[in-house]
Amino acid sequence: MTVVLCMLWVALSATEVVAYPNPFNEQVTVKIDALKGCDAQQVRVSIVDFAGHSYVINSTLDPTTGKLLISAPNLPRGSYIIHVSSPAGVFTVKVLKV
């Protein structure tokens, strides 16, 4: 009996996604270098709790830095996933609202 083992190595280009401050109170900044130069009209941001409820939030992109300023003063306390989709890719980050 002959056993052949094959291994496939895939190199992924990882883009760092940083949310700060985390935990946050009313505003959180999400920095995604891949968003530098993106048109703000092409960037979609959503925030979802762990029960699957989606919330309406206000966000502003600075295309020179790749920073999204997200304002969510009326968001209930808890853990959330921020989803960012753009021509540069889809990004997620976990945040805690206190």
Helix/strand order: EEEEEEEE
Largest sheet: 4 strands, antiparallel
CATH topology: Immunoglobulin-like
Radius of gyration: 17 Å
Unreliable spans are 2-13
Number of domains: 1
Number of helices: 0
Which descriptor suits the 3D outline? globular
Question: How many runs of DSSP E, i.e. beta strands?
Answer: 8
- The N- to C-terminal Cα distance equals 60 Å
The overall average pLDDT, rounded, is 87
| CATH top level class name | Mainly Beta
CATH architecture: Sandwich
Helix content: under 10%
Strand line-up across the major sheet:
1-2-6-5
Q: Which class do the helix and strand fractions yield?
A: mainly beta
- Could you tell me the strand content as a percent range? over 45%
Write the topology of this structure.
Blueprint: E1 17-20, E2 27-32, E3 44-49, E4 54-55, E5 58-62, E6 67-71, E7 78-86, E8 89-97
Antiparallel strand pairs: 1-2, 2-6, 3-4, 3-7, 5-6, 7-8
Description:
The protein has a 4-stranded antiparallel β-sheet with strand order 1-2-6-5, with no helix packed on it. By secondary structure, it is mostly beta strands. The protein is globular, with a radius of gyration of 17 Å. Helix content is 0%, strand content 47%. It has one domain (17-97): Immunoglobulin-like (Sandwich).
